[in-house]
Design brief:
This protein has 342 residues and is of the alpha/beta class. The chain folds into two domains: 2-145 and 288-337, Medium-chain alcohol dehydrogenases, catalytic domain (Quinone Oxidoreductase, Chain A, domain 1), CATH 3.90.180.10; 157-283, NAD(P)-binding Rossmann-like Domain (Rossmann fold). 26% of the residues lie in helices and 26% in strands. It is built from ten helices and 15 strands. Helix 10 (318-327) links the parallel strand 14 (309-314) and strand 15 (333-337). The longest helix has 14 residues, at 290-303. The radius of gyration is 20 Å and the shape is globular. It starts with a strand and ends in a 5-residue tail after the last strand.
Length: 342
């Protein structure tokens, strides 16, 4: 019996994303076979398609790191999942807990190993993470990349404390998760966006104050005013190097600035003295471990949090989903759904 999977030929744009028959794999020892219900896109997937992600995609790989589905078979020795479980998976194959290593970072679903844009995915047992029961399939398919990296940024190496101030820069999915998590953790949230419409939507998600950067190009100044001149304790900058100087300027002493995402190189560009004499740490979290993922899911379930979904596409319109992600300015996750009747 054949199913359908998409394959990616990098650096060919949308022409390199095609559907092909998929022979349903049999799980080996400590492997889990999952029938996919939904899969989610991230900016990382567009970069893999374009060839601008730091790790090259394997030609012909089934893309996407995010997804959810039902376990339909397990290999010998599997104890972390059973047939019928609804599960998602980790971003990296072998990072279960503790510090990341260079070897671990090169083993990624949807890049070097087949990902979720297929009717069936074969997961290593250590990659299995059970999805929060209250989430829909589309919502559960949004967590692996943007959800986990926002959680890691706010909770490691130490969690945000109630009463601290978190600044989010950008309105991509990482920023949206960060706003929800920060509010859930009891922090004050200041967000930077570009339109009045987005500002209102950010307030509904949990932002206490929103600054429109079109009105305030030097948005670090109103951030400082809102914090009595001190600056914020935590920054989640999901834009990248272009906004980093302003994020640093908006930070207090001993702040934690998390620069999120993989960025294409900008030859010849340098940042001149971006720290402004402040003592602070800058980090670029590489998503997170399985332990981070499971801790996040526990908090999501405890607080009944729901991820933001912008639009859903059926699997036969996966190329349109990619196109919409790159051209449609989505607010929230773009999800591909699979038929459940086979």
């Amino acid at each position: 019996m054949n199913a359908i999977a998409y394959q990616l030929e990098p650096q060919r744009g949308l022409a390199g994303l095609t559907a092909r028959p998929q022979e349903i794999p049999a799980p080996g020892p400590h492997q889990v076979l999952v029938r996919v219900r939904a899969a989610g896109l991230n900016r990382r997937d567009i970069m893999l398609m374009d060839g601008t992600y730091p790790l090259a995609a394997r030609p012909g790989v089934a893309p996407l790191s995010d997804g959810v589905g039902e376990v339909v078979a397990v290999g010998d020795g599997v104890i972390r999942a059973a047939v019928g479980d609804r599960v998602t998976g980790t971003y990296f194959l072998g990072w279960n807990d503790g510090p990341q290593t260079q070897a671990l970072i090169t083993q990624q679903y949807g890049a070097t190993h087949d990902g979720w844009l297929a009717e069936y995915i074969l997961l290593e047992e250590d990659s299995v993470v059970h999805a929060p029961a209250h989430l829909t399939d589309a919502e559960a398919a949004t967590l692996t990349c943007a959800g986990v990296v926002a959680w890691s940024a706010l909770t490691t190496p130490a969690p945000v404390r109630p009463g601290e101030t978190v600044l989010t820069v950008g309105t991509g999915t990482v920023a949206l998760f960060a706003i929800q998590y920060a509010a859930m953790l009891g922090a004050r949230v200041i967000s930077v966006t570009s339109t009045a419409d987005k500002a209102e939507r950010l307030r509904k998600l949990g932002s206490d104050e929103v600054i429109d950067r079109t009105e305030w190009p030097d948005w670090e100044n109103p951030v400082l005013e809102l914090t009595g001149g001190d600056g914020v304790q935590h920054v989640i900058d999901a834009v990248g190097p272009p906004t980093l100087p302003k994020s640093l300027a908006a930070s207090t002493y001993n702040a934690r600035v998390s620069l999120i995402g993989a960025f294409a190189a900008e030859p010849g560009r340098q940042l001149a003295d971006p720290f402004g004499g402040k003592y602070l740490s800058i980090r670029r979290p590489a998503v997170g471990s399985r332990a981070d993922f499971e801790a996040m899911n526990h908090a999501i379930a405890e607080h009944g949090l729901h991820p933001v979904i912008d639009r859903q596409f059926p699997v036969d319109q996966a190329v349109d989903a990619y196109r919409y992600f790159t051209e449609g300015n989505p607010f929230g996750k773009v999800v591909v759904t699979f038929p459940q009747e086979r």
